[in-house]
């Protein structure tokens, strides 16, 4: 398996897609039930193949990622050959931007000396989808890029 198996909840959400996947493998509902009982290792392999297909589809459509920690926000734009990062760091131990209060403080104090902006560009490795997947494993979430676009405009105004 290239990525990771979907959780039980994710598989339940994708129930119909999984049925369609099994159909493309010429596996009927009865055969699937039989596989789970008599050949669980084959059933596990089918789940792994399906999970990888789902992840590949999701990763290929992702354009933006966000990762929040206590004192930093990492915003990624996933370009064709490289990813672009806008990072916001709060240099105040009393502020936790993962809380509503901390995030509101950041919004009100963006130009404060305790708030530092960084940006960087990084080329993908041999497998761009795996680079993106690793960021998701570390806690990044796929988004519509609203925050990235906001801070991108803000940083251009400051130049």
TrEMBL record:
It comes from the Bacteria. InterPro entries: DUF6495. It holds the Pfam family DUF6495. This is DUF6495 family protein.
């Amino acid at each position: 398996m290239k990525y990771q198996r979907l959780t039980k909840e994710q598989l339940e959400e994708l129930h119909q897609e999984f049925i369609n996947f099994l159909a493309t493998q010429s596996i009927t509902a009865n055969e699937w039930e039989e596989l789970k009982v008599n050949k669980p290792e084959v059933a596990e392999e089918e789940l792994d193949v399906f999970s990888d297909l789902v992840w590949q589809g999701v990763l290929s459509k992702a354009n933006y990622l966000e990762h929040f920690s206590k004192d930093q926000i990492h915003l990624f734009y996933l370009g064709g050959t490289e990813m672009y990062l806008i990072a916001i760091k709060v240099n105040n131990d009393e502020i936790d931007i993962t809380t509503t209060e901390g995030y509101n403080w950041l919004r009100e104090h963006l130009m404060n000396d305790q708030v530092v902006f960084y940006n960087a560009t990084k080329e993908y490795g041999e497998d761009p989808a795996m680079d993106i997947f690793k960021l998701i494993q570390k806690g990044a979430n796929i988004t519509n890029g609203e925050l990235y676009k906001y801070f991108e405009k803000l940083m251009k105004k400051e130049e």
